[in-house]
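Title: Comparing notes on inverse folding

I've been comparing how different people in this forum approach sequence design from structure. To keep things fair, I'm posting one structure and asking everyone to reply with a full sequence. Here's the target:
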């Protein structure tokens, strides 16, 4: 009657202010109270009793409206009671709460941390207007080993002409500029040569000043520049009057047109943010050269034009070009457009998605572990649940109470996991590729917070609902007969499923970690073809205005070489146009080896590189046959080349290549014949995990007509390479103070940078796999310990009837290992289905490597056996008399 009285008092308060108050007569009030009391006496909960009484009285609309607020208030009040009760319950079980919260903290924290990286790299929206309509282009030359090649100027014009598909198409290529006249002397800037319409395609305009005009995008009229916000602030003190002034870049005067807004740095995929933009100003020769593929081309789609439609249109253009220019388009399968953001994250995407999947597995394992804990704890709370049911509590009420406890665990775990995630940002920053570091950052943003909340709620649902429903299922008569003791077979079955699931998920992670570990080991032992220790590298950008003359440029390079070789501690020095693992593209040229091509057959393709004498000696590249270049290989000497082993085998299989000749271009071209004077081992130029390509090396003094000239200096020292940096800078400043040395790095750091992403991914996945294995073992131990405690009476009876302790041990171990074997079987099937997804991350190892697929299950079963043994040993030592007295 207490609940009905409270309801009546609240209804009366509401009804006094309502024009329908008179409809609630004394007779109705009496029958309403009476019906509520009868419902409670019949075993209904107070809430159900009130609802049933209202429905019996017809539940008129006016009564619904007036009581809805009362019921909502009562629901909130009950939820508050549930939360307070849940907190008290968790406080009474500190051991259980600590283990559950720690498990959820690790699961939610790992998931949030990796999602933060995924959000920063893959999901970060580009800071442009309607970025989903901006696409980038590349040529597909997969048949030649270059699936994503930049486009040539003529191809850019062909794409730009597709006005029915694209609003506009712009082109960019990176370059360097030497800023002269600053307080620190000459300074190199990261720059970009851009078509005038780039900023219109990106819908980004200068913060002050104006953008380029079409008239300025022509040779001779392009002496204008746009500054980045950071350069404007640091170098020019944020002077708004900078617009219209001139600055010296590469020893030429450029008028400042404007300053771009903060954060703008296109193209973003660069080791450093862009400092200056200058009009591209193509020459007529450039606009007809289809072999020069060095442009980043981007376009903005027309409204209502989809990406598949755009790709269909440019495939037609590629086929037309292939028919019209068969020589220049040799090996090009087609043109491809993709979202600009996809082009930025293409290389990083597989590894991050793999890690995101891995932490998803960790979260599932954590949820399964906590679910097992809740199941075991539910068995211990059986008396409490039976008593509450006997006092009239409904199943839904108990499920709600238990779900609130699970939600509290998840909320606390989510808060702690957020702290773990934020604390790991400094470490996880290494997952961001070097060329995107300046364009993004790890931070706990609103989207990451929303993801954490979502994960916490989902976790609460995953690990809390099934145990809550299972715990709340109580057959009152049976429970009273048992005196609140016993266990449910369904509860055992659910726990068994959880254990098998943990084992399966852990095995998938362990297999993935094993494959990546083997791949990383292979990568670490790759023969680079050179010895990186004690080698210093740097580069310089000679100002075209002062060094356009071949003789003057050569004189500068020779002076730098001689000055470097004369420095103390320098053993050797050389120049090259392409540094291994840095200049990954190189000039790909058609090559006609003498006597190797059939009549009319297209020429071979090789990477063309110019070097100075002593380049191979400086890097200690092994000589296979012939000789290295010497000081006598100058303009007036016979033209010679050195080829790598792969080119020698491809051009002249099973022949001695020394003395053979080749020429660049088609057989009928006017290019001179070049004689092979040496064969070297293959260098890893593109990447440690990339196959070697055919390469031809020419002395730079015999390459007057080459587009490539030596801009990298490699120095081998007897001691620490970086110790020679200061002396090198002083020497270069004496030769030309307006030509700074840039990007000083050791060759060892360059090689290490190539493996840093693989190392980080392997380290993280290995750590997650160990965490998964630990959680699985804890879960197995917990379930087996719970089962042993529930079967104590059975074990005592078996021992009293003559069973030996060895059979008891075998019984418990057999039950546990049966679950493990089921999990291993399911996990192997899942691993076979999923490991193919990481094939692109593997090097030198099959995604179905037999050793990994055999060793990992045995490792897991061995650890699981140890987890099962402790409860089994405890069961073996049960005292029969104690167990029977307990019965």
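Reply #1:
Here's my take.
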């Amino acid at each position: 009657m207490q609940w009905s009285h409270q309801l009546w008092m609240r209804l009366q308060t509401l009804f006094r202010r309502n024009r329908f108050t008179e409809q609630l007569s004394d007779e109705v009030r009496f029958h309403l109270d009476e019906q509520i009391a009868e419902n409670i006496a019949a075993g209904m909960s107070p809430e159900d009793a009130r609802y049933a009484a209202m429905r019996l009285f017809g539940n008129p609309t006016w009564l619904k409206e007036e009581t809805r607020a009362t019921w909502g208030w009562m629901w909130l009040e009950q939820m508050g009671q549930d939360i307070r009760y849940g907190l008290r319950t968790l406080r009474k079980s500190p051991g259980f709460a600590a283990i559950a919260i720690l498990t959820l903290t690790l699961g939610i924290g790992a998931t949030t941390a990796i999602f933060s990286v995924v959000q920063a790299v893959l999901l970060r929206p580009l800071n442009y207007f309607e970025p989903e309509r901006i696409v980038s282009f590349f040529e597909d030359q997969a048949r030649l080993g270059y699936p994503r090649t930049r486009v040539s100027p003529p191809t850019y014009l062909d794409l730009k002409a597709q006005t029915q598909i694209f609003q506009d198409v712009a082109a960019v290529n990176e370059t360097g500029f030497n800023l002269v006249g600053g307080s620190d002397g000459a300074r190199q800037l990261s720059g970009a040569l851009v078509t005038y319409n780039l900023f219109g395609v990106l819908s980004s305009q200068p913060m002050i000043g104006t953008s380029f005009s079409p008239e300025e995008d022509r040779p001779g009229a392009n002496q204008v520049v746009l500054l980045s916000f950071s350069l404007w602030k640091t170098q020019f003190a944020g002077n708004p009057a900078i617009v219209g002034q001139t600055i010296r870049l590469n020893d030429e005067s450029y008028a400042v047109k404007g300053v771009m807004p903060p954060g703008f740095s296109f193209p973003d995929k660069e080791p450093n943010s862009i400092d200056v933009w200058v009009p591209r100003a193509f020459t007529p020769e450039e606009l007809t050269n289809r072999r020069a593929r060095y442009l980043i081309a981007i376009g903005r789609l027309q409204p209502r034009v989809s990406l598949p439609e755009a790709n269909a249109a440019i495939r037609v253009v590629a086929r037309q070009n292939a028919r019209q220019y068969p020589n220049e388009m040799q090996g090009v399968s087609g043109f491809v457009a993709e979202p600009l953001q996809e082009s930025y994250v293409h290389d990083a995407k597989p590894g991050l998605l793999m890690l995101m999947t891995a932490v998803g597995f960790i979260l599932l394992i954590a949820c399964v572990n906590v679910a097992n804990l809740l199941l075991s704890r539910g068995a211990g709370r059986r008396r409490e649940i039976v008593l509450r049911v006997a006092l009239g509590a409904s199943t839904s009420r108990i499920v709600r109470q238990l779900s609130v406890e699970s939600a509290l665990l998840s909320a606390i775990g989510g808060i702690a996991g957020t702290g773990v995630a934020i604390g790991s940002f400094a470490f996880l920053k290494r997952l961001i590729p070097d060329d995107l570091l300046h364009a993004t950052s790890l931070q706990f943003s609103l989207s990451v917070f929303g993801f954490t909340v979502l994960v916490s709620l989902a976790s609460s649902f995953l690990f809390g609902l099934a145990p809550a429903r299972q715990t709340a299922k109580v057959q009152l008569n049976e429970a009273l007969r048992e005196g609140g003791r016993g266990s449910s077979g369904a509860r055992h079955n659910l726990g068994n499923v959880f254990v098998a699931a943990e084992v399966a998920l852990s095995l998938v992670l362990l297999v993935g970690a094993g494959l990546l570990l083997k791949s990383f080991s292979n990568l670490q032992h790759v023969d680079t073809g050179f010895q990186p220790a004690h080698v210093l590298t740097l580069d310089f950008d000679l100002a075209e205005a002062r060094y356009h003359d071949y003789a003057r440029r050569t004189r500068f390079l020779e002076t730098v070489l001689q000055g470097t070789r004369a420095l103390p501690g320098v053993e050797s020095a050389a120049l090259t146009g392409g540094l291994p693992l840095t200049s990954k593209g190189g000039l790909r040229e058609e090559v006609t080896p003498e006597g190797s091509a059939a009549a009319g057959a297209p020429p071979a393709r090789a990477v063309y590189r110019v070097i100075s004498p002593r380049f191979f000696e400086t890097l200690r590249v092994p000589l296979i046959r012939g000789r290295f270049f010497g000081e006598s290989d100058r303009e007036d000497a016979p033209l010679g080349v050195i080829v790598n082993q792969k080119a020698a085998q491809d051009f002249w299989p099973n022949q001695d290549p020394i003395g053979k000749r080749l020429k660049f271009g088609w057989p009928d071209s006017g290019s001179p014949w070049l004689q092979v004077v040496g064969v070297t081992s293959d260098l890893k130029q593109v990447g440690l995990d990339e196959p070697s390509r055919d390469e031809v090396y020419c002395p730079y003094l015999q390459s007057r007509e080459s587009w490539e000239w030596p801009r990298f200096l490699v120095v081998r020292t007897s001691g620490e390479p970086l110790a020679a940096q200061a002396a090198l800078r002083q020497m270069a400043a004496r030769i030309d103070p307006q030509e700074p040395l840039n990007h000083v790095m050791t060759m060892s750091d360059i090689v290490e940078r190539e493996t840093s992403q693989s190392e980080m991914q392997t380290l993280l996945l290995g750590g997650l796999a160990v965490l998964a294995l630990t959680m699985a073992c804890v879960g197995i131990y917990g379930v087996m310990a719970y089962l042993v405690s529930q079967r104590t009476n059975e074990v005592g009876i078996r021992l009293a009837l003559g069973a030996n302790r060895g059979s008891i041990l075998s019984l418990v171990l057999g039950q546990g290992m049966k679950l493990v074997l089921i999990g291993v079987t399911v996990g192997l099937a899942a691993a076979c289905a999923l490991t193919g997804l990481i094939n692109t991350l593997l090097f030198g190892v099959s995604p179905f490597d037999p050793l990994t697929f055999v060793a990992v299950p045995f490792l897991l079963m061995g650890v699981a056996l140890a987890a099962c043994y402790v409860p089994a040993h405890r069961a073996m030592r049960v005292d029969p008399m104690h167990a029977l007295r307990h019965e």
